[in-house]
Write a structure and sequence with these properties.
8 helices, 6 strands, alpha/beta
């Protein structure tokens, strides 16, 4: 064979080999796409954005969505609605915190009703509580004798005296341990600084005429007026803040009070009319 013929045959063979290689590569790409595999722009990039667990393993997106959006747990669909409201309005975080609150495991809720009468029905917690409320954790609600030290002033919950405070308006301070027992029954306790202007004190007096409400001065409290129910408290600058009326209406006989509806008569104290 001449040199010219050899070169021609060699070139022809190389072209055939190149065509075969290109055809094989194309077939592999088609097979990979059909099987759902991905390159740098496929499944690997999507998986890299998923959350990881404590061991560094990737978790599925469906698990994360279920945890964030499921209306399971206390409150059911109502709690899901509150969570959505919180996402839209951060100020509504109090509503979400309240929705998660429930009677504590160490709180007694099966004592005999006061006076032997059937308790008044407890009311569900509000979905739209006043802005600024503080919700405190459950502790215990045992009856104990003698002085009791509380974490807050005015106190919101805890152990208390065997005798509760009668509802009404008081011109002088009352004992924490008696008032806490009343709140255990579902009472709302309105306290004010002793130096609150007389006109503002008189604005509080009508509340003392309502069922399940106590009004009294409280030396040393931070805000001019503080309104408290079992485990929930709100500080106010004065009695004319509309949140006071809202709080009383929404938290009186609250289901969060372990012995809610157990009244506040036949106890201690002589309120002024």
């Amino acid at each position: 064979m001449s040199i010219e013929g050899f070169v021609k045959e060699f070139v022809t063979g190389m072209r055939a080999t190149r065509i075969a290689v290109l055809a094989l590569a194309g077939a592999l790409v088609l097979v990979g796409a059909a099987c759902g595999g991905g390159g740098t722009s496929g499944g690997a990039s999507e998986d890299s954005g998923r959350p990881q667990d404590s061991e560094g393993k990737r978790t599925s997106g469906s698990t994360q969505e279920s945890a964030a959006g499921s209306p399971s747990g206390k409150g059911g669909a109502g709690e899901a609605t509150l969570m959505e409201k919180t996402a839209r309005d951060p100020a509504s975080g109090e509503a979400t915190e309240l929705a998660r609150a429930e009677v504590g495991e160490r709180e007694i809720s099966n004592m005999l009703p006061a006076g032997g009468e059937k308790p008044d029905p407890a009311r569900p917690l509000p979905e739209d509580p006043p802005e600024g409320i503080e919700v405190y954790p459950a502790t215990t609600n045992r009856t104990v004798k003698g002085p009791i030290d509380y974490d807050r002033e005015p106190p919101t919950n805890g152990d208390h005296d065997p005798l509760w405070q009668n509802c009404g308006f008081y011109e002088k301070p009352i004992k924490d341990r008696h008032a806490v027992h009343s709140m255990d029954h579902g009472v709302v306790w309105i306290t004010h600084r002793p130096d609150l202007p007389p006109g503002q004190v008189e604005a509080l007096r009508p509340y003392g005429e309502e069922n399940y409400v106590i009004v009294s001065p409280y030396p040393g409290q931070d805000a001019p007026v503080i309104v408290t129910s079992w485990r929930v408290q709100l500080e106010l600058e004065g009695p004319r803040d509309p949140r006071l009326r809202q709080f009383v209406d929404q938290f009186r006989i609250s289901e969060l009070s372990p012995l809610s509806g157990n009244r506040c008569a036949l106890g201690v104290g002589n309120p002024k009319s």
